[in-house]
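WARN retry 2 of 3 for item q-0093 after timeout on previous attempt; input resubmitted unchanged.
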Amino acid sequence: MLFDVNAYLGHFAFRQLRHNTADGLLRQMDAKGIDRALVSSASAITYRNAQSGNEELDEAVRGHRDRLIPLAVINPAYAGWEDDLKICCDQFGMRGFRLYPKWHNYALTDACAQQLIAAAAEQHLLVSIPIRVEDYRQRSWLVDVPDVPLAEIVPLVKSHPKARFLLVNGLGYSRSPLGRASDQLPPNYWIEISRISALLDNELGQLLNNLGPDRLVFGTGMPFKYPDPPLLKLEVLDAPGEFKERIRGRNAAALVGG
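OK item q-0093 returned
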């Protein structure tokens, strides 16, 4: 099984996205042998009200829930986020949410974010944090949004040991406490591999050695990115086949509950 934990539907305000409908994404998945995907709304990143993107996502995945598993985008700095979370979980059946602190102008240490993550831990919801949305060098002249520093993730996972964090679109973990088992962080976070190198400094191999095979998951970033590079990384990774199978899909399936 090949399970993509990092995919999107919808539009992005600053560039055209191809294959950004459910049918289009499924065609790309079929072409690359990807069985299932966690999807969230690309539109919700730049919508003033992220809930509108969640509503569009719920409609888009109807009839495809066996393969497309929706994640909400929740902005804890926006009034009424508690109602948004309840609707997304109770009515839409979403199993977690993504956070965009830099795009939505709040800090992960803010009381609203801490309250949301505590609620996620209590309800056993997955908290996904994209470290970046797109390459900073390709940003629009209208916005200046930096990546989420890994240094801001470290205290978050420490302070919420019962929460489950999925970190996507990141790299440099091997230079962070997140990538070093000796730092005694709780094993409550998983790392998606789409930006991590499998050659040169081989960060993927380092993380596999440091964290073990159960903490890494496959992702592509479609349709912001093409799926071929992470597929190639798995192919060239020097690891037992059993380890690769966990990264390909078994870890993700366990993370979302089946």
